Amino acid sequence: MAEAGGGTDAAEIGKFAGLAADWWDPHGPMRPLHLMNPVRIAWIREQVARHLAPAGDGRRPLAGLRVLDIGCGGGLLAEPLARLGARVTAIDPAEENILRARQRAEAQRLAIDYRPAAAEEIAAEAAAFDLVLALEVIEHVPDPSRFAGLVAGLVAPGGLAVMSTVSRTVRAFALAVVGAEYLLGWLPPGTHDWRRFVRPAELAGWLRGHGLAIVALTGLAYEPAFERFRLVRDPGVNYLLAARRPPAPSGVELG
User: How far apart are CA 57 and CA 199, in angstroms?
Assistant: First the structure.
C-alpha cells in the first residue's frame, strides 16, 4: 500500500512508514487490507492459473513463478504468495516496513527477498518477472501514468501484471474516503486523496500503451453484514485489473 515509484512522494512514504508496527493488526488501520486479502489472493490465483499455467502442485500452485510485489508494506500479500510456492521479491520505499516484514519472514522461515526500494530501482536492473503486483499503490503516487509504465516494463514476455486501486467516482469518495476514514474509522483521516484515484479506463489505457493486453477486470464491494469483501461486476469503487504481456515470438532468445 505504501507508495513506490512514479516519482516517489516523501509525504506518502512517511505516512505509511509511521504505520509499520500496525500492518498485521487485523483491527488496526490496515483492517481493509486484511478483509480484502482472501478475495484478492483467490482472484490472483485464478488469473495466474488461467494465463500463466504454472507447474506447481495443489499445495504450492505458484511454484517457480518469479513474483514482484511493489509497495509491499508489511508483507500482507508477499507472505501468502511465498507459502503458495512463488519466488517473491517484495519492495517498499519505507525502510521501516521492510524491517518489520523481514523480521516476520525470518521468524516463519519464509524465503522472501524484501528490499527497501522503489519500482524505478528494480526497473534500472532490467529485471523481469512472471507476475508483477501493485495493489493499492497507484493512488499514492504523484505520476500514475508513469508508474503504470514502470509496472508494465517489469512484466516478462508472457507474464502478468495485477493492479488494484480505487476509481475516481462520487461513490468512491463517499465509501473509500468519507466512509472508511471518517465514519468507520478504518484508516487515519487523510490516507487517501480522491483526486489521485484512477478510473479503470485510464489504467487500462496506460498499460495498453506499454504493450500489455487487459485480460480481466473486477470490482470489489464491502458487505457490512458479513464484514467481508466480495467480487462484483461494477468497478466503480475498488477494483482489480489484470494485464498480460504477449509471449515472445517463437524462436526468439531472450537475454
Answer: 36
| Stated pTM of the model | 0.87
Q: 132: helix, coil or strand?
A: strand
Residue where the block lists cell 467480487: 231
DSSP state, residue 6: S
CATH architecture of 10-244: 3-Layer(aba) Sandwich (3.40)
Q: What are phi and psi of 208, to 5 degrees?
A: -60, -35
| Three-state secondary structure readout of 151-213 | HHHCEEEEEEEEEEEECCCHHHHHHHHHHHHHHCCCCCCCCCCHHHCCCHHHHHHHHHCCCCE
Domain locations in the chain as residue ranges: 10-244
Count CB atoms within 10 A of the CB of residue 84. Answer: 21
Q: What is the pLDDT of residues 145-170, one digit of tens each?
A: 999 999 999 999 999 999 999 998 86
